[in-house]
Amino acid sequence: MRANSVNFSERTTSDILQSIRHIDHITYIASVEDEHRFLTKWNLLGFNEHMRLKTVRFPATHIALVSGISAEYPWATMTGLSVSEDPNSPINKFINLYGEGIQHTAYNIDPEADMEELHHQMEELGWKFMTPVLSYSDESGALLKQMFVAPSTPYGSFIELVQRLHGVDGKAFNSFDINNIDDLYEHYADYSNWLGKKN
């Protein structure tokens, strides 16, 4: 265990709620036509393209831009951009309702924390989630755990809580996965449609 890490097995129930370490990333939504302008603007701030993923079930391009380095990850700061050519995609529904801007902010959770217990305790406090804890692993066994707080309006902005766990090579999960992104958008669309009917 890291020297500055907290042993969550020795903490009280309420202490587990205090497991956010820092912002993991912020993701923006833009039209396809504005992709180049967005990337150029962030390149001038020192952010370079780290990865580009294309999802299938909800066709879109998701780009991670990173700046600097840290002890845990090959970046110190990350921002993201998602664009879609599908006019009916959740991305373009967001733009039609709210314009281009921040879709979600992701908070990095201490790797010692129990994500399922955190999910449960936040629900007990009145937080509403559009997903359970979603888990994905890479070839080295590094694990990515994510859960997404529900938007308050259809296709509105939301919060992500993400935990990146080390694999056998000692490196934390430092990427994303097209399946987890598609899973997110499936829940996002379903919850937004439910909100629309409710209101």
From TrEMBL:
Organism: Tolypothrix bouteillei VB521301
Domain VOC intervals: 22-164
Name of the protein described by the UniProt record: VOC domain-containing protein
Top-level taxon: Bacteria
PROSITE patterns per record: VOC
